[in-house]
């Protein structure tokens, strides 16, 4: 009997996902199961034991229904978002064409792709599930009831993931047919995470959970939550937790459980029905994007590059960067995180006289992420593109200069503007203080751009899937923090002084100086690496 | 006497710790001014390595080479100014228009602003891209991209052009068009052309002389007739197979008779 096609696709997806660790493949299932078992039996109970009092109190409280529903709804939304974001970042059409040219149904592709990812989804879902089981265990809930809780929870998460897969299949195929669509898809992948970020900060720092529990507040939100399948699962979990050892045939439990299962089955059916439409290779548009002649903006960019050859190079590189929508959403995402931190966290900290302003400190640690996003693509478009510079006379150094200038053009205004605005919004802000903060950030972001460019050139990553890229991101971010610590160490004479010499201004300037110095050295090394690239 | 513009002496490129991978091994060739020379060889024979070495993109492990009188190691920048390259897998900025890409390439080769604008217009017209010149490259077909890349190789008007597999990824119509362009560049513009390919008809049609390379070593050089005569074969294809050791394994095809297909 031939193997079902969805199983063939699932196996292939699994192989693709584990391609980098193919030597471990034979023992991978054992490792998965062992890790989950160790987590369930050792780690989760340890975590829960520390907070068991709070967890039990929450579950037994009046506000539990609302709060558990919000938490599960967030998890459910996250489960939907993960496959969509993953799919939108990929270039799917080639692989899809292979599948669709074979004698199989589109439903096989959808189900196969989902099942291929299921082992990894299961690990993701087992983390909160393990905590739930540990809490239930500490409340005296029996093994049978715990089993029901796990099943309900897993079905809830898998329904979200399947829903996400179905939406992803439709969206990615629709967007993947044109270059512009693929561009929008990549941009959308980051933009989709923004509502979740806002929700997280609102829950963690903005008192959303408390507000939602108030009977007079959030009626609309509660109504919406009641419609979400995760809430039906949440109600089942709460009912079981509140009646340890009770009967499982409680009609409310049966209804909630039935609802979750019905939703999952319904979504499976719907996915199968729309798979054909989702996996269509019919082109949606054949139009090419036309660009206008350079306006004032690109004229200014060219002038900033000193006109001439370097100016033309800078404009070209900058256009290639700015016309990729994902770059805009990446920067917007980090800015949104910073805004959320300033809205929800900053007011909780009162700064004494002479202490560093909170917005500046936050920006010092958050904004380098933008620098990494802007600068990290220095070699990521591949060796073939870099050969253009290697072929042209003396072009590698000009290329590096243009890349640093491009980073400055994006990072310095964004970083300085952000600190300017957030400092202005601080209670008791003075104009002098605001300008000093903004000035320090301008100096730091200028130096940090050199440092980050250098880091990404010393170990060049030639594709956005290269492990080297992630290593570089790690080095750039944590190296920056290490340089800050070093600056603080030097400014306090090895932590012997309580306050740094020249205060935090001195620390910030020293930090910038170290970034510039190390960055320039790394640029020189990177230039040698590029010249020697074969 | 004809002027030699490309000259190599034992040009070699080795990779690996013990230099066990010989990408190019002792290449000795001479290419004359205005001639179209074809380097023919199977995949992985060392053709692309030869192009990269002759353009100063990679450094040789041994031997020397001079292009238009300039040493590829000592006078790398001078070499780069007198050559234009169409690479086998070229990099492109997809988010630039053709006009913007040519402007970028012109800036890399220090073509002055006044001259550059006119030359871009001229090249876009010549290659039939003028009407799509302001469209982003990401929307171009393979043939259009290839035309743009040839235009980019010509932007600084170099006397010597290198084409690495210029037609291998193109459909017959686009390939025909590219072949026509190369012929025009050789006949009308008087360019010296160094072309690599594994497509025999392309080489046969365009090249004055050819060299056959296999496993990094040049195994034959001359006109097509000379090479056919040297190998004792009847056609260039037979000569190529005889020289490079390629065989049609009849046993390999016998599986069709042994395996019962539905």
Shape of chain B: globular
Taking strands numbered 1, 2, ... along the chain, how are they ordered across the largest sheet of chain B? Answer: 7-8-9-4-10-11
Most extensive protein-chain contact, per-chain counts: A-B, 39 and 41 residues
Please indicate the count of domains of chain A: 2
Q: SS-based structural class of chain A?
A: mainly alpha
Annotation field: number of helices of chain A: 21
Class by SSE composition of chain B: alpha/beta
- Number of DSSP strand runs of chain B: 11
The share of residues in helices of chain A is over 70%
Report the end-to-end length of chain A measured between terminal Cα atoms. 50 Å
From the coordinates shown, what is the CATH architecture of chain B? 3-Layer(aba) Sandwich
Mean pLDDT of chain B: 88
Give the termini separation of chain B.
66 Å
CATH class of chain B: Alpha Beta
Note the main attributes of this structure.
heterodimer, A: 534 residues, mainly alpha, 2 domains, 21 helices, 0% strand, globular, B: 262 residues, alpha/beta, Rossmann fold, 6-stranded mixed beta sheet, 5-stranded antiparallel beta sheet, 11 helices, 11 strands, 39% helix
Layout of strands and helices, then pairs:
The complex is a heterodimer of chains A (534) and B (262).
Chain A: H1 5-17, H2 28-60, H3 64-89, H4 93-101, H5 106-138, H6 143-175, H7 179-191, H8 193-204, H9 208-213, H10 219-227, H11 229-242, H12 251-278, H13 296-304, H14 308-322, H15 325-344, H16 358-375, H17 383-391, H18 395-424, H19 431-458, H20 467-491, H21 503-532
Helix pairs in contact in A: 1-5, 2-5, 3-6, 3-7, 3-8, 3-11, 5-6, 5-12, 6-7, 6-11, 6-12, 7-15, 8-15, 11-12, 13-14, 14-18, 15-16, 16-18, 16-19, 16-20, 18-19, 19-20, 19-21, 20-21
Chain B: E1 4-15, E2 21-27, E3 30-32, E4 36-40, H1 47-54, E5 62-67, E6 70-71, H2 76-82, E7 83-86, H3 98-108, H4 113-126, H5 142-154, E8 160-164, H6 172-187, E9 192-197, H7 200-206, E10 209-214, E11 217-222, H8 224-231, H9 236-244, H10 250-253, H11 255-258
Parallel strand pairs in B: 4-9, 4-10, 7-8, 8-9
Antiparallel strand pairs in B: 1-2, 1-3, 1-5, 5-6, 10-11
């Amino acid at each position: 009997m031939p193997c079902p096609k969805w199983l063939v696709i699932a196996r292939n997806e699994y192989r693709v996902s584990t391609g980098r660790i193919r030597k471990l493949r034979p023992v991978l299932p054992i490792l998965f199961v062992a890790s989950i078992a160790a987590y369930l039996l050792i780690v989760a109970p340890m975590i829960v034991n520390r907070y068991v009092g709070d967890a039990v109190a929450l579950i037994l409280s009046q506000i539990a229904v609302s709060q558990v529903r919000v938490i599960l709804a967030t998890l459910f939304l996250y489960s939907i978002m993960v496959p969509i974001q993953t799919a939108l970042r990929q270039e799917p059409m080639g692989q899809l064409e292979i599948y669709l040219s074979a004698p199989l149904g589109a439903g096989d592709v959808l189900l196969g792709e989902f099942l291929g990812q299921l082992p990894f989804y299961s690990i993701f879902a087992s983390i909160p599930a393990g905590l739930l089981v540990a809490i239930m265990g500490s409340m005296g809930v029996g093994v049978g009831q715990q089993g029901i809780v796990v099943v309900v929870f897993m079905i809830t998460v898998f329904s979200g993931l399947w829903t996400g897969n179905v939406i992803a299949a439709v969206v990615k195929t629709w967007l993947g047919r044109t270059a512009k669509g693929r561009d929008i898809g990549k941009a959308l992948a980051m933009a989709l995470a923004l509502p979740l970020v806002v929700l997280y900060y609102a829950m963690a720092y903005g008192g959303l959970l408390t507000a939602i529990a108030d009977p007079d507040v959030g009626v609309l939100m509660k109504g919406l939550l009641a419609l979400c399948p995760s809430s039906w699962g949440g109600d089942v979990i709460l009912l079981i937790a509140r009646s340890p050892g009770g009967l499982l045939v409680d009609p409310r439990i049966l209804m909630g459980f039935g609802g979750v299962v019905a939703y999952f089955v319904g979504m499976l059916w719907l996915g199968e029905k729309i798979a054909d439409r989702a996996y269509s290779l019919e082109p949606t548009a054949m139009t090419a994007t036309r660009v206008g002649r350079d306006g004032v903006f690109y004229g200014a960019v060219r002038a900033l590059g000193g006109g001439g050859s370097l100016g033309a190079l800078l404009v070209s590189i900058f256009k290639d960067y700015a016309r990729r929508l994902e770059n805009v959403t990446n920067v917007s995402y980090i800015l949104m995180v910073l805004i959320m931190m300033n809205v929800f966290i900053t007011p909780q900290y009162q700064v004494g006289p002479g202490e560093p302003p909170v917005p500046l400190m936050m920006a010092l640690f958050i904004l380098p992420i933008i620098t990494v996003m802007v600068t990290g693509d220095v070699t990521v478009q591949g060796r073939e593109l870099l050969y253009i510079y290697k072929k042209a006379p003396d072009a590698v150094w000009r290329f590096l200069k243009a890349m640093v200038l491009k980073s400055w053009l994006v990072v310095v205004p964004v970083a300085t503007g952000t600190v300017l605005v957030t400092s202005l919004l601080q209670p008791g802000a003075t104009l002098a203080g605001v300008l000093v903060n903004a000035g320090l950030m301008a100096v730091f972001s200028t130096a940090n751009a050199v440092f980050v460019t250098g880091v990404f050139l010393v170990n060049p990553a030639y594709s956005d899937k290269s492990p080297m890229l992630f290593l570089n991101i790690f080095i750039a971010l944590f190296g920056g923090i290490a340089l800050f610590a070093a600056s603080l160490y030097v400014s306090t004479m090895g932590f012997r002084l309580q306050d740094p010499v020249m205060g935090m201004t001195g620390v910030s300037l020293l930090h910038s100086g170290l970034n510039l110095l190390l960055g320039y050295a790394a640029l020189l090394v990177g230039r040698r690496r590029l010249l020697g690239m074969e | 006497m004809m002027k030699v513009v490309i000259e190599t002496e034992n040009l070699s490129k080795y990779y690996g710790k013990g230099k066990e991978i010989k990408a190019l091994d002792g290449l000795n060739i001479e290419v004359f001014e205005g001639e179209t020379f074809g380097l023919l060889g199977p995949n992985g024979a060392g053709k692309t390595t030869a192009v990269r070495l002759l353009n100063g993109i990679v450094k040789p492990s041994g031997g020397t080479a001079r292009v238009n009188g300039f040493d590829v190691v000592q006078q790398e920048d001078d070499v780069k100014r007198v050559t234009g390259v169409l690479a086998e897998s070229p990099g492109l900025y997809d988010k630039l228009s053709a006009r913007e890409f040519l402007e970028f390439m012109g800036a890399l080769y220090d073509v002055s602003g006044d001259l550059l604008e006119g030359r871009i217009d001229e090249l876009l017209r010549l290659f039939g891209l003028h009407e799509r010149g302001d469209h982003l490259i990401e929307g171009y077909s393979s043939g259009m991209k290839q035309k743009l890349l040839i235009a980019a190789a010509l932007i600084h008007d170099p006397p010597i052009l290198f084409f690495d597999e210029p037609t291998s990824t193109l459909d017959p119509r686009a390939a025909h068009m590219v072949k026509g362009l190369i012929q025009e560049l050789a006949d009308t513009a008087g360019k010296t052309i160094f072309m690599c390919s594994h497509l025999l008809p392309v080489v046969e049609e365009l090249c004055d002389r050819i060299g056959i390379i296999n496993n990094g070593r040049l195994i034959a050089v001359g006109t097509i007739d000379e090479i056919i005569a040297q190998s004792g074969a009847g056609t260039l294809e037979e000569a190529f197979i005889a020289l490079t050791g390629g065989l049609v394994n009849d046993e390999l095809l016998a599986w069709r008779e042994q395996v019962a297909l539905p």
